[in-house]
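> Could you send the Phytocyanin domain-containing protein prediction when you get a chance?

Sure thing. Input:
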Amino acid sequence: MRSLLVFVALGAASLLLRGSEAADYQVGGTTGWTRPSSTSFYSEWVSGKTFAVGDSLTFTFTTGVHDVATVSKSEYDNCSASSQDNLLTAGPAKITLNVTGDNYFLCTFPGHCSAGQKLAITVAEGNTTSPGTSPPPPSSASGLAATFALMFVSIAISLMCCF
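Output:
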């Protein structure tokens, strides 16, 4: 009985550790980062999501057809990027969220931002999840490998306790 409790406790711990990983959000879901069919597409995509420091955004786009710039609120509102310092031109582009507060992104290709290819998000501290929602699955298998390793160790400990 004691070995079963150890197994269950370690299994629960592995699930908790798995749930605290940073999330990798694919901007626009299966649509990706493109000139949208509606100017509200990306604001609707953000709806119901909670972003946290450590999470990342992956902008999937064709190189040479789109780009992604990190901009200020004013630049976002005016669809302009005054600096090329925060411009990623090769897709897919991954941006790790390192700062809390409002973050703004847009495509600098002519007419794309005004057509709605821009994104505004709010980043919270720590890795949190919106009520009633789950973060997307992590982008790599490292978390899954860690879960299996922890489960293997818990089984081994359970077996040692029995003998």
